[in-house]
Sequence to fold (134 residues):
Amino acid sequence: MQTIPCLLCTRKLEKRTSKRGKPYFVCDFCGIQLFVRRKQGIDRLDAFFKNAEKAEVHYQQHAQNFHKMHAILKEIDDVQQEIRNIGFLHYFSDQKYRIRKSLNTRLEFLFSQLEEFSGEDKKNAVAKKPESFG
Ligand SMILES: [Zn+2]
Fold:
């Protein structure tokens, strides 16, 4: 849905099309009507919507990565707590040693995932940076 904010109340105004095919916006709440009649204005409006869509995609990707990273950080914390719970090396049975080794492997995996995500986020930030318009 293509919307712009109302100048006064900032409600989302949906793009409508006039009988002549020109875009316009109406705020039923404020009674504002905004018509875009010239080519330059219509082009600007199109550019604005294109940028808004790209920015939205980037934001969603970023939020998704943030949630994944948060989940990984939480698991790292849990695994580290488990390792601490097992205790010190000289009390280790064979079993405890193997558990600790598995936990450390898991920890390594989580750290590598975390690094991958932070790298991906940077790549996306460069690739999907919205173009400026004006
Ligand atoms: Zn309004």
Q: What stands out?
A: Strands lie at 3-5, 12-14, 16-17, 23-27, 32-35. The two ends are 22 Å apart (CA to CA). Residues 54-134 form one domain.
